[in-house]
Design brief:
- The chain is an alpha+beta fold.
- It has one domain: Glutaredoxin.
- It is 49% helix and 9% strand.
- A hairpin with a 2-residue loop joins strand 4 and strand 5.
- Helix 1 crosses helix 2.
- InterPro entries: Thioredoxin-like_fold, Thioredoxin-like_sf, Thioredoxin_domain.
- GO terms for molecular function: oxidoreductase activity.
- This is DSBA oxidoreductase.
- It comes from Intrasporangium calvum (strain ATCC 23552 / DSM 43043 / JCM 3097 / NBRC 12989 / NCIMB 10167 / NRRL B-3866 / 7 KIP).
């Protein structure tokens, strides 16, 4: 039997808090669809990640507590191969994503490069990937393949290659042979990659991410937390830059 990594005590204590938080977040994100559903819809005014304001939500202590609870999901794990940026960056973007999702591909191609250049490379932002393979069996296979690439320190190269030539959802193309071809193109040891595709410990990491997302109400991808502030769908790059800069300013003011 595979030993599934257990969350630390802080995370275990957080789960009931987050479950309670979900109901309030649903209300805050009512204009976005069910729970933290992915897609391209714009945030409702006053929702975390939007550019509007709301007298009933802005600055409320309850909302602050909700955002703080979600912000604590940032792992900041040293040497995490599925994270980009400094462990002590003032802003953490947690990205619940999957390789078959067209909107995830749009974010990866259109927005991530700008965020890396303008914020990750300057030590302001850390991006943490979370697997949320909800679209079907091929999603699960691709997520496991990403973890296999991470074992060789090339998760982000695999990530970029998968989204650069993204296949249609549930096309039947994301086979082990196809994924091994991607691994070969980015310079991985293909024999090790294929072996790691059968490693239950890597599958457990995927499962842990998926469960975490479900626990906070994620139902689709992409879904993001920027220092705990939800941003739903492949929003314009400016939506992310405004929120990152605001959170960075708050962190600087708090020092």
């Amino acid at each position: 039997m595979t030993d599934i990594p257990q969350p630390d005590r802080r995370k275990r204590l957080l789960v009931p808090i987050v479950v309670t938080v979900v109901a309030a977040l649903v209300a805050l994100l009512a204009g976005l669809g069910p729970k933290l559903a992915g897609g391209s819809e714009q945030p409702a005014p006053g929702a975390p990640g939007s550019t509007g304001t709301s007298d009933t939500t802005a600055g409320s202590s309850e909302q602050d507590e909700q955002i703080a609870a979600l912000a604590s999901l940032a792992r900041r794990t040293p040497g995490d191969p599925v994270a980009l940026g400094k462990e002590d960056a003032p802003v953490v973007l947690v990205n619940y994503s999957e390789f078959q999702c067209p909107f995830c591909g749009k974010f990866a191609r259109d927005t991530k490069p700008t965020l890396v250049k303008e914020y990750v490379d300057k030590g302001i932002l850390r991006i943490e990937w979370r697997d949320f393979p909800y679209l079907g069996p091929e999603s699960g296979t691709a997520a496991h393949a990403g973890r296999a690439a991470a074992e060789q320190g090339k998760f982000w190269e695999f990530h970029d290659a998968m989204f650069a030539d993204q296949q249609p959802p549930n096309s039947g193309k994301l086979t082990e042979d196809y994924l091994a071809g991607v691994a070969a193109r980015i310079g991985l040891d293909v024999a090790k990659f294929r072996k790691d595709l059968a490693d239950p410990k890597l599958q457990a990491k995927v499962d842990q991410d998926f469960t975490e997302g479900q626990n906070i109400g994620v139902t689709g991808t992409p879904a993001f937390l920027v220092n705990g502030n939800p941003v739903i769908g492949a929003q314009p790059t400016e939506t992310f830059t405004r929120l990152i800069e605001a959170e960075a300013a708050k962190a600087a003011a708090a020092k």
